[in-house]
Design brief:
328 residues, alpha/beta, TIM Barrel, 8-stranded parallel beta barrel, 13 helices, 13 strands
Length: 328
């Protein structure tokens, strides 16, 4: 019988498929569907620091009391944050009550301000782990690369200081040296890294002359981004590695496991194909493993990492083979 079991963040999972943080994982009905379809763990919809801040600023502009009373400002700041946090803590409690699989809380943060207290509340609510989705766009010319990297470390250190549950960091690929940053994050003592988060990207409507949102869902070819960096770093870090972005089917799942991923996080394919896509992927993974005579995941996980292949295969950045000799 095929053995799908694996470990992630020190948690024992029945298979390597995890439901990634998204609006889909923000209500109990969907969470129960995902568990029934076979996911081994769920990452709850993130609570967004940026969203809380934006709501706060909007209400400040709309209400004259903010401009005339510092006392009222302090009260509203506390009240608004408390309301958002309380709702999220209740989601964790409800999920733990209804599900048998591990529940991972998630916070999307851009500063190191209040998330240490929030992490404690997540732990007390029963969360099995916490995922920090950190994305700081390097667009401020006043900030050096080192300052941005230090902000990541500051957030992690502050959050980890008050809790015992494992912490994973969902990171961006916007770094001058991704492998070096992966190493730095690993050295903070986190239990896992998720490569990579999918950020909002702007587009332009040329008829309305307006800024719009680009594609919400990932493309099925996007998985090659985490594929490269997981393969290059799988055997160089102590923490678990989760693959995320562009993983839509069993083929990409298998490829990322071969590259060295411990688990696979899925989101877009669930929105597009429904939670039954999880069952389909697991069935096809079973067929592939049986065909290749693999009894468990560890027998082939990392078989095609950088250590086991020519490094040039993962480090190459030019299309020499296809376009190098093309004449225009």
């Amino acid at each position: 019988m095929t053995d799908f079991t694996t470990q992630y963040l020190g948690l024992y999972l029945k298979n390597p498929i995890i439901a990634a943080s998204s609006s889909y994982t923000g209500n109990i009905k969907h969470l129960k569907e995902l568990e029934k379809s076979g996911v081994s763990a769920v990452v709850l919809k993130s609570i967004f620091e940026e969203e809380i801040i934006n709501d706060h600023h909007h209400n400040m502009d709309m209400d004259d009391r903010f401009h005339s009373s510092l006392e009222f400002l302090d009260y509203y700041d506390y009240d608004l944050k408390k309301e958002s946090v309380d709702k999220y803590i209740q989601l964790i409690k409800d999920a733990k009550k209804e599900l048998l699989i591990p529940v991972i809380a998630s916070v999307n943060c851009v500063t190191s301000q209040d998330w240490a207290d929030f992490a404690v509340k997540c732990e007390n609510a029963g969360a099995d782990a916490l995922e920090l989705n950190i994305f700081i766009l390097p667009s401020d010319e006043q900030k050096t690369a080192q300052e941005i990297e230090n902000e990541y470390i500051k957030i992690i250190d502050k959050v980890r200081s008050g809790i015992k549950i494992p912490v994973a960091v969902k990171m961006s690929h916007y770094f001058t040296n991704i492998s070096e940053m992966i190493k730095k994050l690993d050295q903070t003592g986190i239990s896992g890294l998720v490569l990579f988060n999918r950020s909002y990207s702007p587009d332009i409507d040329i008829d309305k002359m307006e800024i719009t949102s680009s594609n919400i869902f990932s493309n099925s070819n996007d998985f090659t981004l985490p594929l490269r960096w997981i393969a290059l770093n799988a055997n160089k870090v102590n923490c678990s590695l989760a693959a995320s972005t562009g993983i839509h089917d069993s083929t990409s799942v298998i490829k990322l496991l071969l590259a060295g991923a411990d688990v696979i996080q899925l989101a877009s394919t669930i929105f597009i194909n429904g939670s039954e896509q999880i069952t389909k992927i697991l069935n096809e993974l079973d067929v592939w493993m049986s065909k290749n005579k693999y009894l468990n995941i560890d027998q082939f996980r990392g078989k095609l990492t950088n250590d086991n292949k020519n490094p040039a295969e993962f480090e190459r950045v030019q299309f020499m083979k296809y376009f190098g000799n093309k004449k225009i």
